[in-house]
UniProtKB/TrEMBL annotation:
Domain Sulfatase N-terminal: 28-309
UniProt-recorded name of the protein: Choline-sulfatase
Alphabetical list of InterPro entries matching this protein: Alkaline_phosphatase_core_sf, Sulfatase, Sulfatase_CS, Sulfatase_N
Entry keywords, A to Z: Calcium, Hydrolase, Metal-binding, Signal
Gene Ontology MF annotations: arylsulfatase activity; choline-sulfatase activity; metal ion binding
Family under the similarity heading: Belongs to the sulfatase family.
Enzyme class: hydrolase
Organism: Fuerstiella marisgermanici
Gene3D superfamilies, A to Z: Alkaline Phosphatase, subunit A (3.40.720.10)
Keyword Calcium in annotation: yes
Enzyme Commission code: 3.1.6.6
Signal peptide from the UniProt entry: 1-23
Length: 504
């Protein structure tokens, strides 16, 4: 009897010493939540007008990145970047998919194909908006429309997610859920959400817009109402994930796809267009309540996911895994610069720009200085054919202070370079490009941009390529190409060849 008891004790000790094969040590699932057209206007980022308790809670349960950025502040290029881990000029999606822009190559490795190779079941809820769609062969798709009119409630996205989780069975999964808020139109309420709406008297003007009026504050209020509705959807989705039993083994990443559609936001290379919220919750890996200050980018998402599922990260990717930043450990060696670009995204808004910033300074490069920046007109000219509801009207512009008017003028017809001290001027009102005091830092960022363009083989670093691209865009401002089923922009083939020649 004593020997039998001893054997039991020894067995229990051995079992206790074995590693537990619990949820945290199996292949993790990945839930990527993407919202439309919003910067970090969330409570957890310090916005006092935001009503986002669910996203705030997610941040408290994970890591919030204070300085997260997109590579291009329009939907299709941004999405192509986080799906491929490449800058827009590297993958080819340098404009909107609805305007025939596309990847250079349909066989570009991406988060879907790479995870399927690791035996993951992949799902997409909401729009993809990258061409060609065949490059992303998701196993499961639901609600493929943009749903900008919010005909489908947030509950439909949650129901689709639950259906996907049931279909995955025991297979590890990757699911991308793409909510339509806060894209235009800024609907004050949809399907009774939010239950209590905000009005213009409840908010202040977004500080980076410049103009202010009762009308604009009503538009801002409805933007915040969209954010509240988004937050409701995210809360319901995370509750459903918890009920599924998979939450403890799921890496959750939340991002906005670019900044809000207000002047000097979406479509620009100003901070309000490029800076986004990014929150990562990963039980057992990400330390709850951590805030990181490093400069991170959406191109870091794919390397992070591959690192999480223990798959090799292709050497061609421009991003890097965020895993070393998921605790409050001391700073690790990280990138010094963040880069971005725009082409205006379609002919009606065409204008080529590049930007580079470090922790303090920001440089904007305009390779065709002194020409009209067409995208500025959609925000500053109410008669522009693509003017938006958030545009500054003439009567509102007449009331802006002189420094704001000077900044508007720079935006409308940019000089060769713009240079901003983000520590002293976070909203980029005062262009210091001609300041002798900042000449050394300006030259340093110019060199960093040139080095980056050479290293990543940016076709738009070549003046001939810029001229050819802009010429074709401006000659198609009537948008008739949209009715041509076989239309293809010249850049898709020409820029691909240029990059291949530079690689050789």
């Amino acid at each position: 009897m004593k020997i039998f008891t001893l054997l039991i004790v020894l067995h229990l000790l051995c079992v206790a010493g074995l590693p537990r094969l619990d949820a945290a040590e199996t292949q993790p699932n990945v839930l990527l939540i993407v919202s439309e057209d919003n910067g970090p206007e969330l409570g957890c980022y310090g916005d006092s007008f935001a009503r986002t308790p669910n996203l705030d809670r997610l941040a408290s349960e994970g890591v919030r990145f204070e300085n997260a950025f997109v590579t291009y502040s329009v939907c299709s290029p941004s999405r192509a970047s986080f799906l491929t881990g490449l800058y827009s000029h590297e993958n080819g999606q340098i404009g909107l998919a609805t305007h025939k822009f596309s990847l250079y190559r349909p066989d570009t490795p991406n988060i879907v194909t790479l995870l399927q190779a690791a035996d993951y079941r992949t799902g997409l809820i909401g729009k993809l908006h990258v061409n060609p769609e065949s490059a992303f062969p998701f196993d499961f798709k639901a609600i493929p429309s943009a749903n900008f009119q919010r005909r489908k409630d947030v509950t439909a996205y949650v129901a689709a997610a639950e259906k996907f989780w049931q279909s995955a069975d025991e297979q590890p999964w990757f699911l991308s859920v793409n909510f339509p808020d806060a894209h235009l139109p800024f609907l004050r309420q949809a399907h009774g959400r939010p239950e209590t709406v905000q009005t213009g008297s409840d908010v202040e003007m977004l500080p980076w817009v410049g103009a202010d009026s009762e009308r604009l504050r009503e538009v801002v209020a409805d933007y915040y109402n969209c954010m509240a509705r988004l937050d409701d959807g995210v809360g319901q989705l995370l509750t459903a994930l918890q009920k599924s039993g998979a939450a403890d083994n799921t890496l959750v990443i939340y991002i906005g796809d670019h900044g809000a559609q207000f002047p000097r936001g979406k479509g620009t290379v100003y901070e309000a267009g490029l800076r986004i919220p990014m929150i990562v919750r990963w039980p057992g890996q990400a330390l709850p309540g951590t805030v990181r200050q490093e400069l991170v980018s959406i191109i870091d998402i794919l390397p992070t996911v591959l690192n999480a599922v223990d798959r090799p990260v292709p050497g061609a990717l421009s991003g890097r895994s965020l895993k070393p930043l998921l605790t409050d450990a001391a700073s690790v060696p990280w990138r010094e610069f963040i880069f971005a670009m725009t082409t205006g995204s379609f002919p009606g808004n065409c204008f080529v720009q590049h930007s580079v910033r470090d922790r303090r300074f920001k440089l904007i490069s305009n390779p065709q200085p002194g020409t009209d920046n067409l995208i500025s007109r959609s925000y500053l000219d109410e008669s522009h054919p693509f003017a938006v509801v958030s545009a500054v009207r003439k009567d509102e512009r007449r009331n802006v202070p002189a420094p704001i008017e000077r900044a508007y003028a720079v935006w409308e017809k940019p000089p060769r370079y713009e240079f901003y001290d983000l520590q002293e001027d976070p909203y980029e009102w005062n262009n210091l490009a001609d300041s002798d005091q900042h000449a050394a830092d300006k030259d340093r960022l110019i060199k960093a941009l040139h080095d980056f363009q050479r290293r990543t083989r940016d076709p738009l670093s070549d003046a001939d390529n810029v001229n050819a691209f802009v010429q074709q865009q401006l000659s198609n401002r009537d948008l008739k190409y949209r009715r041509q089923p076989n239309f293809e922009w010249d850049y898709v083939e020409e820029f691909r060849k240029w990059r291949e020649q530079k690689a050789q």
